User: Fold these one by one.
Assistant:
Number 1:
Amino acid sequence: MKYLIMIFTLLSWLIGFSTYAKSINIVIIDVVPAGFQHQGRTQGTTYELINQIADRANFKYDTKLKPFARVVQELANGDADMSMLLPNSALDGQVVLVAPVYELKSMIVSMPNEPIKELTELSGKKVGMLRNATFYRKIPNHEQLDLYEVKNYRQGIKMLKHGRINALLAIDQSFYFLLKNEGLERSEFAPPLYFDTQHMYLQVSNKLSDESTINQLKSIVNDLKSSGEANAILKKYVGE
C-alpha cells in the first residue's frame, strides 16, 4: 500500500509538471557559429545557449534554424516565441528584450608586419569586408575607406596573407570560429583593433512576456553568465 501511494504521488507530480510546462517555439538564425548543421546534428553558440535557457525554465520546446528574415517575421507575427538576436527596430513593440547573453565585437584584422593600431591608420590602406556587410559604417569617416568586397573570411584571410589587402573587417565570433576550424592560430595575426560592440539579446514574443516568465528568464541568463557556463559554450566554438 505504501508503495502504491508513492507511485500515485510520483505520477501525479509528473502529470502536473507536464501540464504546467509551457510549450514554446524557438527560432534562431541559420548562420555559423550561432546555429548550423554538422554531420546531421544541429549545433552552435546560440543554439546551445538558448536550449540551456529553455531547459532551465522547464519549457517544452522545439528549436529550429531559419534565415534571418524568417526569424524576424515569425517573432513579429507570434509564430515563434523565443530567439536570440541583436536588437532590431523591425521588432519594436513585438518582442521583449529579456537580457543580453553575449557580445559581438566588430574588429579590424591585420598582419604582424603591418599592424593596424588606430582607426586613423586605415587611411590609404585597402580594407577587405564581407559582401553586403554594413558594420563598417561604425568607423568614423568610413566614406573615405578603400573597401574591397570578399566572399567570405577564408578569402579575406588569403588576400590578407598575400598582401592584396592591408586589413580585414570582421565580427569576432565568426572570424575566430573559422580560425579554429581551419587550424589557424590567432597569433598569426596582429592583435585586433575593436571598434564596436553589440549584444545578442534573449528575446521573447509578447505572448510569453508575463512578468514572472521574464524575471525567471533574466535570472537564468544571469546564472549562465556569472557561473562561466555561457562563456564556456562560446569558447567551445571560437577558442580562447
Number 2:
Amino acid sequence: MRLVVAAAILATATGWVPQVRAQIPATIPDRPQSGATYDPYGRWELRAPEDRPVETTRLLRVEDGTPFYEKGDYDSPAVESRLLPIIKGSNLPAGAGPKSPYLPGTNLRFAYHYLIDFWRAWPQAKVRGAAGESRTAAGAVAQRLSRAAVFADPGLPKAAVDTLFAQADALYQAVLKMPALQRAQGMALRGSVWMTRRKDIAGVEVYSFRLVIGAPALHLATPGAKQGSDGRWHVPEQGHNAGIAITSNIPLRGGPAWGRYHGTQVAFLPDFAALVVAGDRPTHVSEFRGGGGKQVENPRFFDPARPKTDIQILTVEPGASSPIEARLAHQGSLSPDTIYGRLIAASFLPDWRPLVDRLNSPGAPRAQ
C-alpha cells in the first residue's frame, strides 16, 4: 500500500508515469480466452475488457481529402488539428490514449492505433496551412537508396552487401508507398543503411542490415535550404530527427511479441515496433528445459541451414524527434499530420510478412 501511495505522489510531483512495460503479464496462458487467433509467440491475457461507447465531435466537412471536425472542449495538438473525432468533455480523440483498443486477446492497449487508423481512413489527407509555410512545403524525397549511403563492416562479402542493399531498398520502397510520405509536406526523406554480422547465443552467424529513414523537418529560412527544379525543398543535415529504423536479423531482446495489430505482430523495443518472424523458431523459450519459468531469448534462434542474408526476423520501429513527442503519441495528444504521426502510420500500414517472404524466396538475391 505504501508503495502504491509513493508511486502516486511521485507521478503527481514529477509527471513520471510507469512505463508501458509494467503491463506485461506475469504468466502466458496456453491460449487466449477471447477467441482471438492464437499466436504461440505472443503475450496473452485471460480476457480483454471492453470500453463503453462515447459521444464524439461531428465531422463537418472534407476538404481535398482532409477531414474537418468540430472543435473539442479542451486543447491539445490532436484537438487543435480538427482531424479527429474528439470525445465530448475531454481532449482525447476516440480510440486514443487510455481509450486505445486492446491488442486482440490481451489487456494491452495499442497506443498508436488512432494515428494509424487515421491514415488508413484518410490516405489523401493533407497538412493544412498557408502556401509558402514550412509545414506545407514539399520536401525532397529520395526515391531509391543510394550506394553512397551504405556503410558495411569491412570483410563482408560483396555478394552479401549487394543482397542486403537490395532487401533494404525493397523495404524502403514499401514505406514510400504511403501517399502522405510521397507528398512529404514539411519534411524531407532519405535513407542510410548499415550492414554487419550478428550471432545468436549459440554462435550462429547471419548478416544484418539497419535501414534508417530520416525525416528532417523543413525550415525554409534555415541557411542552406534550397528549392530544386521540381519545386521540392532540400535541407542540410540537422540534429536529431524523427525517422523509421528497419532492422533485419537482430535478436529480440525486449521480450516476446505483445500480440497482433491487423495481423502484424507488435514488439516493444523500447517502444512499439512492427515485427516479422520469418521462420519456425520462436524468439523466446522457457528458461527451463522442462518448461516453466520466465521467457528468455532463444539461444538457437537463427537457422544455420538458411542463407546468411535471409531475413529471419525484421523489426520496423518509428522514432520520435524528442521524448515529448513520443509521450504525446502515447497520451493520444499527437496530431496525425505531424511528421512522427505519419511515420508511425507508415511503419504499421504495410503488410510486411509477404514482402519478407518474397525477399527470402529462391528467386530473390541471397548470399552466404
Number 3:
Amino acid sequence: MRTILCVLALFIGFSFAASQDLFETGTIDINDGEINDFYLERNTDNNQYYLLVLLRKGGLKVFNAKRELVFQRVGVRSFVYWGDTYLHNNILYFFETQELYGLNFDDFKTAKAPSQRLPHDLYTHYRAYKDKTSELLVAENDTIVDVYQFPDLDSIARLKRQTGEYSYYVDGLVVYNARRRDLFAFNLNEKKMQWKIDAGERKAKFMGISLGVFPGWWMRPYWNPDDNLVYARTSSGDLYKIKPKSGEVVLKKEQFRGDANNAGLLTRMYFKDMNGDGKNEIVSPSVDENIYCIDPKDFTVKWVYEAENENQMPLAFYDITGDGIPEVFSVCDYDLMLSILDGSSGKLIMDFELKKEHKKFNQTYVVVADIDGNGYLDIITQSSRQKIRFLELKTPKLPTSGSKRP
C-alpha cells in the first residue's frame, strides 16, 4: 500500500508535510485536437520557459509561463531533438509537409530553412548532433536510418534495418539495431560497417514457469559522457557497455535482475550524478514495475524503488534541496501515480494520485521547473488527451544558491 505521508529529514535534511502541499495552479485545455506530446523548453536569452504542445492530427501550440498561447501553427508533426533540448540557439526546428522550418523563440517568427525537401511522412523520429566540424540530422523509422548534413539536408548515408529502436551517433559512428539480435555501428567517414554484436539467447520464466529459450533483441543505445562508452540493454535484461570505435564489450551483465518475465527490462537510461561524487549513475524506469539506480562501473543496483506499476514514460529530475543530487519524478502507467524520490536513496518522499479524467488515458509525461520564478517547483502533467495540468509544490521553497541542478 502506498504511503501518502513520508518524512525523510533523516536522509535529506527536510520534510514534506503531506501531499496537500501539492496544489493545482491551472490547466491548459486543448479544444481543437488531442495532445500527442508536450515539452518544456527555456529561452536562454531571457530565461523564460515555454510549453510546447504537439497535436496528434498535426499542429504546434506554444504557451508561456502564464499559460497564455503565444504561437500556434497547423501541420507541424515533429521537432528536431538536440540531445537534451529541442531549441538550438533558441530556434525550434520542425517539419511541415516536406519543408524544414525554424521558429525563433526571441520573436516567435518562423522562417523556412534553406535546405532540400525531405519525404517527411517517411520518418517517425528526428535527432540532431553536433560533430567536430558540422551538424548532422539522423532521421529514422522502422526500416531505415537516414543521415543528413544539417541544415542543408544533403544526404550522407542510408542504413537499412528490420526493427525500429532509436539509434545514437557518437565519434563518427551511427550505432543502431539493424536486426533485433544485431547491434551495428556504421562509420560515416569510411562508409562501412565498423562492428556488430549479437544479443544472443536467454532463458525466460513467467511466474516461476519456464517459457524456454528466446532470442534477445536490442533496445535503444545510449552514450555516457563520463567514460565515452556506449551503453545498451536487451529485452532479456542484459546490460552492456561498449567501446564505440572498436565494438569491444567492456562489461556485460546477463539478466541483471534474473530470468523472470520482464525482469530488468529497462525502458530508457538517464545518466545523472546521484551521490555527489561527480560521476554519473544510471537511473532507469522498467517494465518490471521498478525504478533502478545502477552503478555503471559494474552494473550493481545501488537502489531500487518498487513503483507497483509499469513505468514506460520519461522520468524528470530536479534538485529541490540544493545538495547537488537531483530528486526523481515519476508517473506510473495506468494509475497515474506521481512519485517523488530522494535521489541518493530511492526512498519515497511523497506521492500524489493525479486526476484521471478518462479510463483509457493511461500514460503521461512529467516535466518540472520553477517556470514562473516564484521559488516553488512547478510540476506539469497531462490529465486527459486534451488537458494539461499544472501543479505547484509549496514545500520546500527552492534554494536560491548552492544548487547544482541538472
